[in-house]
Design goal:
Radius of gyration: 57 Å
Distance between the termini: 158 Å
Structural class: alpha+beta
Helix content: 25-40%
Number of strands: 26
Number of helices: 6
Length: 497
């Protein structure tokens, strides 16, 4: 009995809560005269219930879609790696990821969020069932826009530029930290196809991506302010900037005003060291700017020089003034020199800039060797017959005599030295031959002595081995031995038969 009463009480409590919630859902506040005067679109989403009611498990993640909404795009942020959410429509029917009519419903799921777009959604209270992050249960994208700082009127090819941007949804800034994982912000330059500029017919180029990760030029991570670092390594000319917001479900574009991209305003030249050997041993690097666009007094240079032998030297030019900047490069080797510069300065409008200057190269050649012309005033007096070879000028005759005398002395010295070398070589060969002959004779004498002594000793031994036959050995009285004894026995046994 008590159990039945408790069940009845619990059912009445749940019924009371449910009726309260749905009464809040269906009863919309009547618009006042002040509200009707203001031309503002109503929000397409309304949370149900108060904090306590939304904490109840059965009523969690509930939201309402108004009757005049033709299309709604929603993002549900959930726990990492959890299953996609399930949407419950007001009539109780359910929408599952992978089992929807793609004509009206588009669903993209990732590890941390679901993005769903529904055309002509059913008006009324909806519910998302799943491990949705309580801090951001649901986010309905109605009118997302990118707001970026406008580009300056003077831009240079090769300039490194910082730009910031932020996103709004329905006119309100998006501060959701997880939303940066859903969208990609970028800026592209499209050619204006103006035949008066160098970029006529050029391809589109992505200039930068906006990030909110605290890296590069971004000041603070996940603060809702996206920062893009431009590196304008594109051709100079007239360009159309296009800001783009990409999501897995849709893309939003904003077209900015056309801009003129000027050529790199830094001019680089070099004065090579004198090639006739009279130079001071330095090449002079000269750096100037387009003074109509850049304030020369603000110019600072940070550079690097690569020598032909691959050595690298860094240098900086920080002195101001309106004169051309100069830097001396040691000219100790011939070959290709490479100069890479980064320029810092101010435009004529007062905007600071950082500029990546294209690499400048120059070739240094060694001085040509001096060649002595054997001709006199470009003519050979002996060949053309204008001068008797025996009656040349005194200076030339004395010069020839000196040369002949020095050559004769060199020949005499060379022949004497050659004779000494030949005698030394021959004497050495004869001495080596005599020494070799003496050694051979001595070795033969030593070898012949022991050989004759050994032969005599062998002869004596042979003589000693020969037996001397005496008369006793020839007598018959001696008893035969060995084979003779056996033969004698054989002869004795024969007559007995």
């Amino acid at each position: 009995m008590r159990v039945g009463v408790m069940k009845l009480v619990l059912a009445l409590c749940l019924l009371g809560c449910t009726s309260t919630v749905f009464s809040q859902d269906t009863s919309l506040p009547a618009p006042s005269s002040q509200d009707t005067q203001v031309d503002t679109a109503p929000s397409p989403i309304t949370d149900l219930g108060d904090e306590y009611e939304n904490s109840i498990k059965l009523l969690q993640n509930r939201f309402r879609i108004d009757y005049n909404v033709k299309e709604v795009s929603m993002i549900f942020f959930r726990e990492y790696g959890s299953a996609p959410v399930v949407l419950v429509r007001p009539d109780g029917s359910k929408l599952f990821q992978g089992r929807v009519d793609e004509t009206y419903v588009k669903w993209f799921d990732a590890d941390t969020f679901d993005m769903i777009t529904i055309e002509n959604p059913m008006p009324g209270p909806w519910q998302a069932v799943g491990q949705v992050n309580p801090a951001s249960r649901v986010m309905v994208i109605s009118d997302i826009k990118l707001h970026a700082t406008s580009l300056p009127s003077i831009l240079f090819s090769g300039e490194i530029l910082k730009s910031t941007a932020y996103l709004t949804n329905g006119g309100e800034k998006i501060d959701n930290q997880q939303f940066r994982d859903v969208v990609e912000l970028s800026i592209e330059f499209e050619s204006a196809n103006d035949p008066n500029y160098d970029n006529f017919g050029a391809n589109d180029a992505e200039i930068a991506k906006f990030e909110d990760n605290g890296r590069g030029m971004d000041e603070r991570p996940m603060d809702g302010v996206f920062t893009g670092q431009f590196n304008l390594k594109v051709a100079a000319g007239k360009w159309q900037p296009v800001y783009r917001v990409d999501t897995p479900m849709f893309t939003r574009e904003q077209i900015g005003a056309p801009i003129i991209l000027y050529n790199n305003p830094v001019y680089v030249d070099v004065e090579l060291d004198a090639t006739d050997g009279t130079g001071d041993g330095y090449h002079t690097l000269l750096i100037d700017v387009n003074r109509e666009l850049v304030n020369i007094e603000s110019l600072l240079i940070d550079g690097k020089i690569k020598f032909p032998n691959a050595d690298i030297q860094n240098f900086s030019l920080t002195e101001g003034g309106d004169s051309v900047r100069e830097h001396l490069i040691v000219a100790y080797e011939e070959g290709v020199y490479r100069v890479k510069l980064t320029a810092y300065g101010t435009t004529s409008e007062g905007r600071d800039f950082i500029l990546d200057v294209p690499e400048y190269t120059f070739v240094a050649e060694a001085p040509e060797p001096e060649v002595i012309d054997p001709l006199i005033d470009g003519e050979d007096p002996i060949v053309d017959g204008s001068e008797d070879p025996l009656s040349m000028g005194d200076s030339s005759t004395s010069l020839n005599q000196d040369n002949t005398q020095s050559m004769a002395e060199d020949d005499e010295m060379d022949s004497g030295t050659l004779t000494l070398i030949i005698l030394a070589v021959n004497g050495t060969i004869i001495l080596i031959g005599v020494i070799a002959a003496v050694m051979i004779i001595l070795k033969r004498r030593k070898a012949s002595g022991p050989a004759s002594a050994k032969a005599a000793t062998k002869k004596e031994n042979k003589k000693a081995k020969k037996k001397v036959v005496s008369e006793s050995d020839l007598s018959l009285d001696n008893e035969p031995k060995g084979f003779k004894k056996l033969l004698a026995k054989f002869k004795k046994s024969k007559p007995a038969e």
